[in-house]
Every structure is written in structure tokens, then in C-alpha cells.
Specification:
With about 90 residues, the protein is of the alpha+beta class. It is built from 2 helices and 3 strands; from the N terminus they run E-E-E-H-H. It has helices at about 40-55, 70-75, and strands at about 1-5, 10-20, 25-35. It comes from Gossypium stocksii.
Length: about 90
């Protein structure tokens, strides 16, 4: 969940849901992430979801997002990094 409209930069809120292999809700979060673009907010959502899953011991994760831009970034050679390192902590 990313609350933003259009292709703008502004105050952003993001959140995610973590479910188990049967689709049962495990946890959910929502938080303000400051000022950023919609794509940056989407990347924060991915990072938060993956970090939360990692923290509860999940090592095989199915990531679902409605952001085609995030999917494209994940599949690209450059990955999710762009000019920042939002997902880099998860590589270790």
C-alpha cells in the first residue's frame, strides 16, 4: 500500500502485509516515510515487506506488488538501487 497520487514527490506513507504459505495474515505495517517520489515509496514498501519477512525467519518469499515500475526495476540489470541503496541491506 502506497498512498500517493500521480507522478509527484511529496509526503508519503507506505505499508505491507506478510502472509504465510497458506495466505494467512501474519503481520502488517503502515508508516510515514517522509518526502519521496511514488517510485521511491514503492521501493520502500518492497524493502519493508522483505525485511519483515526476513525478521520472522522467512527465507523463501513470494513478493507481490501492483507496481510495474518496481517489477521492472527488480528484473533490470540495475535492480532496485538506482541512486540509492534501499534494497542493498537484504543482499547479505
Amino acid at each position: 500500500m502506497v498512498l500517493a497520487r500521480g507522478n509527484v514527490t511529496g509526503a508519503a506513507t507506505t505499508g505491507c502485509v506478510v502472509r504465510n504459505h497458506e495466505g494467512v495474515w501474519i503481520l502488517g505495517i503502515a508508516k510515514s516515510i517522509g518526502t519521496c517520489s511514488i517510485v521511491e515509496a514503492e521501493r520502500w514498501r518492497v524493502l519493508e515487506g522483505l525485511q519483515q519477512a526476513w525478521d520472522i525467519g522467512a527465507r523463501k518469499v513470494l513478493l507481490e506488488t501492483d507496481s510495474l515500475m518496481v517489477v521492472s526495476l527488480l528484473k533490470s540489470q540495475q535492480g532496485m538501487y538506482g541512486d540509492n541503496t534501499l534494497v542493498r541491506p537484504l543482499e547479505d
